[in-house]
Amino acid sequence: MATGHNPLMAGLAGRCPNCGEGHLFEGFLTVSPRCEACGYDLARGDSGDGPAVFVIMIAGFLVAFAALFTEFTIHPPIWVHLVVWLPLTVVVCVGMLRPMKGLMLAAQFANRASEARNDD
């Protein structure tokens, strides 16, 4: 691991957790096979469903709290809830998914989780 950078912050920013320079993703959520800067094998990491679960929990809490707060304080008609909260839910979920996946992959790197695999 290169010194002088935080692998978790690098993952959150979509950078290689090893060097902090190369891109972690090829597309929106597709993990690059190798870091173009240091050659680190990024394909070893597997975040599974973890990022999606955290995003659903965090976004669900934030949007549900905001919707309930709005309902009890302002009492808008139901169509206002649909027009405001459904698109906001999509935007928050999509906006959080890539940084959360990068964070989960970086946490695997920082804790050397790929070395503990048992593919028997």
UniProtKB/TrEMBL annotation:
| Key words, A-Z | Membrane, Transmembrane, Transmembrane helix
Decide whether keyword Transmembrane helix is in the record. yes
InterPro entries named in the record: DUF983
What residues form the membrane-spanning segments?
52-72, 78-97
Protein name listed in UniProt: DUF983 domain-containing protein
